[in-house]
């Protein structure tokens, strides 16, 4: 795998990983721990991506999470509904890694402020 710039991912869990990588938690994580270009753009480096705390949901939680991800991917709905779906995805991720409501709210505020 190249060190940066190009990443190729394969596997059966790609929708879950896609949901996680596009979450506010992922944005916050990279803005806090990742390196920047010097112009404020966060670089997605291999060593940082490998440290992501991706938790694979199981059972009914997995099905709900996948439904939200597919709804967002295929969404042709108005922007307010898209944002609502994204908040629900973020809430699933926060719950899966054990964040408190306060921690999740903090991350949401930080991510939206950037």
UniProtKB/TrEMBL annotation:
<protein>
    <submittedName>
        <fullName>Uncharacterized protein</fullName>
    </submittedName>
</protein>
